[in-house]
Amino acid sequence: MNDLYDRHRAVLPDWLALYYEDPLEITHGEGRYVWDAEGQRYLDFFGGILTTMTAHALPEVTKAVSEQAGRIIHSSTLYLNRPMVELAERIAQLSGIPDARVFFTTSGTEANDTALLLATTYRRSNTILAMRNSYHGRSFSSIGITGNRGWSPTSLSPLQTLYVHGGVRTRGPFAHLDDDAFVAACVEDLEDLLGHTRAPAALIAEPIQGVGGFTSPPDGLYAAFRDVLREHGILWISDEVQTGWGRTGEHFWGWQAHGRSGPPDMLTFAKGIGNGMSVGGVVARAEIMNCLDANSISTFGGTQITMAAGLANLNYLVEHDLQGNARRVGGMLIERLRAAAAGLPGVREVRGRGLMIGVELARPGTDEADPRAAAAVLEAAREGGLLIGKGGGHNTSALRIAPPLSLTVAEAEEGAAILEGALRAAY
To answer: How far is CA 330 from CA 7, 95, 219, 327, 380, in A?
Structure first.
């Protein structure tokens, strides 16, 4: 393994992060488990950063990819593409956006880029509202709106970005307020901000912030924002790259927890729909999607093999009610982790919905982030046979737990026991 690590460091960028002091090579997986090059088995509670949404080596997806590869893998968007049309029809119907159009990309980053292009073109403005602690991708424009310093290597941007309060419930100047007062204060902040700037093109927001540590506002915040935005003609983009497809359990899309004032104008998606294949995209109202006045295609977005995977994966997800499973098993897992953390002074909060759970760590006796403890728990969990992620805002101190949505109760118990042991070892 050291040889592969040395080769990695010799040819790949220094900033390409790897987990673990002894980096892990995953060679294969099945269900909710993966194996490394040494034959060690791990319960996967991170799913390739929320990408292996249903299961590793899911037979239905494997079969669809294999059969499509035997016919044709790729032709570009210059030709009619039956799998792309079929998946677009399904997603348009599921999106909740009226008169929806779908454009496929290869990643969530590219999807957010496209949404920004559409919003700024439609509104003739390059000003974007974004949330503090947010993450929207690694391209130049998506970095320009990302509100998380750890993932923003440059301040240069083609956009003017204004950051709004509300994405983090338990930190910041409004954390001491109750939910209703918190929402009211965030809305007042938004209204004040809009009084000091030219009208922005759009607000882009993750219903639950992913890289930010699985933080979220009270239900209804973005509905309240929507009422204000509508008065100014400002669009609402819901970044569903991590929250989409039923992962939160209670809803198919994260925006539905904020749906009182209607659906967003656009939503972006990626990660889980391909179950590991590179699929992303944008759903928008037709008048917004069709506002571009120059040619645009995608060489690899919507390619036949990824669309076949997405269709098979979506069918499996719906037919097996994995959203319901995320609600049931995820709810049990959250309560199990809260009980385990109750006596541990370093666990600041266990939060989340469905199978999107964050465990935030802090230095005992303080409210300060504890990134060293987070790294130690990550290592200890791996030693115990569990893979998890990490994230957070001002400092990386939140453990991120996002297993495939087919997780069983027994596997949830297994993972919770390993994580409890890792937390106890750290504190």
So the answer is: 39, 23, 18, 5, 22
Nearest by Cα to 118 from 101, 136, 140: 101
| Encoded tokens for 52 | 């292996």
CB of 5 within 8 A of CB of 11? no
* Dist. CA 389–CA 358, nearest whole Å: 9
- The per-residue pLDDT for range 180-210, each reduced to its tens digit, is 999 999 999 999 999 999 999 999 999 999 9
pTM of model > 0.85: yes
Angle of helix 322-341 relative to helix 409-426, nearest 10 degrees, comes to: 30
Helix (H, G, I), strand (E, B) or coil at 304: helix
| Residue 80 to residue 351: CA distance in whole angstroms | 44
1 has pLDDT over 80: no
Whole-angstrom Cα distance, residue 61 to residue 52?
11
Calculate mean pLDDT across residues 99-110.
98
Which pLDDT value is given to residue 150? 86
> Long-range contacts for 39-42 (Cβ within 8 Å, ≥24 apart)?
40/385, 41/385, 42/382, 42/385, 42/386, 42/387
pLDDT at 68: 98
Cα(106)–Cα(108) distance, rounded to whole angstroms? 7
Tokens of 245: 């497809």
Q: Do residues 144 and 112 touch, judged by C-beta distance below 8 A?
A: no
Mean pLDDT of the chain: 96
Burial class, 424, CB count within 10 angstroms (exposed 0-12 / middle 13-18 / buried 19+): middle
Helix, coil or strand: residue 225:
helix
Check residue 37 and report its DSSP letter.
Answer: T
